[in-house]
């Protein structure tokens, strides 16, 4: 496996400095969220409960409701498929009804400052691209250290390990001010209007659709 050690201290990371990628205002972010299950949410709601098993949760263990909040999404021309691939990666089954999954997109209303994990910064920090594909518990500890080291950052930009390194974002609660008043898209996956698009996406990913 590519080198992926425990993170440096926040102080050490602060001395290194961040490689910042600006996600400009007006960028479209796609996400899959669930109306049911353990952590029901809405199209633009950041998750305060954590850490969960998700890769870049920056919450402090043990899991609880915290002031720290996170929202995962995907950007780029195929952001909807990327979000689908990442959310359903464990089973590779897109279940349109279980826990009432929804597909949403929104346009940010201000620039977002993101730490670029797709370039050389992980290497300079002593890790590698495995930060986006290696053990998730360790990636969460990196996220905790990054959050503490760089208070001006709104989140992380990383490559999807499930969709050809397509761009994804993990937005900290600092990014909440960039959320619009309403989404551009917001439909339950069970909506018949999405059926053809979901079939095509699942065929592209070799996922099952139920």
Secondary structure elements and pairings:
Layout: H1 10-16, E1 20-23, E2 28-34, E3 47-50, E4 64-74, H2 79-87, E5 93-94, E6 101-107, E7 112-116, H3 121-124, H4 136-149, E8 155-159, E9 167-172, E10 185-188, H5 195-205, E11 208-209
Parallel strand pairs: 5-11, 7-8
Antiparallel strand pairs: 1-7, 2-6, 3-4, 4-9, 6-10, 8-9
Helix pairs in contact: 1-4
Explain what the structure shows.
The chain has 210 residues and is of the alpha+beta class. The chain has 5 helices and 11 strands, in the order H-E-E-E-E-H-E-E-E-H-H-E-E-E-H-E. The strands form 3 sheets. The protein has a 6-stranded mixed beta sheet with strand order 1-7-8-9-4-3. The radius of gyration is 17 Å and the shape is globular. The model has no long low-confidence stretch (mean pLDDT 97).
Beta fraction of the residues? 25-35%
List low-confidence stretches. none
Number of distinct beta strands? 11
Strand order of the largest sheet: 1-7-8-9-4-3
Q: Compute the separation of the termini in Å.
A: 34 Å
The value of Rg in angstroms is 17 Å
Mean pLDDT: 97
- Categorize the overall geometry: globular
Bin the helical content: 10-25%
- Helix and strand composition category: alpha+beta
Largest sheet, in brief, is: 6 strands, mixed
How many helical elements?
5
- Give, in order, the helices and strands: HEEEEHEEEHHEEEHE
């Amino acid at each position: 496996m590519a080198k992926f050690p425990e993170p440096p201290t926040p102080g050490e990371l602060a001395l290194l400095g961040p490689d910042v990628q600006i996600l400009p205002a007006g960028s479209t972010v796609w996400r899959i969220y669930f109306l049911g299950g353990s952590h029901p949410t809405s199209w633009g709601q950041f998750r305060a409960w954590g850490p969960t098993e998700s890769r870049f949760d920056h919450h402090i263990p043990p899991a609880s409701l915290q002031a720290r909040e996170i929202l995962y999404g995907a950007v780029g021309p195929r952001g909807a498929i990327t979000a689908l691939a990442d959310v359903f990666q464990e089973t590779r089954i897109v279940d349109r009804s279980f826990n009432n999954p929804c597909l949403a997109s929104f346009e940010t209303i201000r620039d977002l400052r993101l730490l670029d994990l797709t370039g050389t910064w992980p290497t300079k920090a002593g890790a590698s691209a495995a930060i986006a594909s290696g053990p998730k518990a360790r990636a969460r500890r990196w996220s905790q250290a990054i959050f503490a080291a760089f208070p001006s950052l709104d989140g992380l930009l990383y490559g999807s390990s499930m969709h050809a390194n397509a761009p994804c974002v993990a937005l900290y609660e600092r990014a909440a001010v960039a959320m619009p008043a309403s989404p551009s898209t917001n439909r339950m996956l069970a909506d018949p209007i999405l059926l053809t698009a979901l079939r095509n996406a699942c065929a592209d990913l070799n996922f099952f659709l139920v």
